[in-house]
Specification:
Elements lengths: L1 H18 L3 E8 L7 E10 L5 E9 L8 E10 L2 E6 L2 E4 L4 E9 H6 L2 E8 L4 E7 L2
Antiparallel strand pairs: 1-2, 2-7, 3-4, 3-8, 4-5, 5-6, 8-9
C-alpha cells in the first residue's frame, strides 16, 4: 500500500513539474561562413503559450548575468492564425512551438560570448529563460 501511495505521489508531482515548463531546447548555430567582419547565427528554442509572449530578449554574455557582448529584442505578432517572430526586420513564422531568430553579430562578439541566454517576457509580466553555455 505504501508503494502504491508513493508511486501515485511521484506521478502527481511529475504532472505538476511538467506543467511548469515553458521553454525547451535552446540551440545557437552559425549558419554562414564568417565574412570579414560578421557572422549570422540561428538561435532556436521551443516555447509554449505563444499567444501569451510579449517579447523575447536574446542575450550573449562572457559571464553569467553580465549581458556584456550583445543584447537584442524580438516581438511576437499574429496574422490570421499564424504567429511570427519579428527580429532584425525579419518575420519568421512560428511552427510547432519552434521559435527561430537569425542574429547577426561581429566576429569579435561571436568569439567572445560564453553564454547565450533567451528571456521570454509574458503578457502577465512573468518571464522564463533558457541558458546555453558555449563550451
Amino acid at each position: 500500500m505504501k508503494k502504491l501511495f508513493f508511486i501515485s505521489v511521484l506521478c502527481l508531482f511529475g504532472f505538476y513539474a511538467t506543467s511548469q515548463v515553458k521553454l525547451l531546447d535552446l540551440s545557437v548555430i552559425p549558419v554562414n561562413e564568417p565574412s570579414s567582419d560578421s557572422i549570422t547565427v540561428l538561435v532556436q528554442f521551443k516555447a509554449r503559450n505563444i499567444s501569451d509572449i510579449q517579447n523575447i530578449q536574446l542575450i550573449f554574455e562572457t559571464q553569467n548575468g553580465m549581458a556584456d557582448v550583445l543584447q537584442k529584442t524580438a516581438i511576437i505578432t499574429q496574422q490570421a492564425n499564424t504567429y511570427y517572430t519579428v527580429f532584425e526586420n525579419h518575420s519568421i513564422p512560428i511552427e510547432n512551438y519552434n521559435i527561430s531568430l537569425y542574429c547577426k553579430m561581429s566576429n569579435e562578439q561571436f568569439a567572445l560570448y560564453s553564454i547565450a541566454r533567451v528571456v521570454v517576457q509574458y503578457n502577465d509580466n512573468s518571464s522564463a529563460f533558457l541558458v546555453l553555455n558555449n563550451d
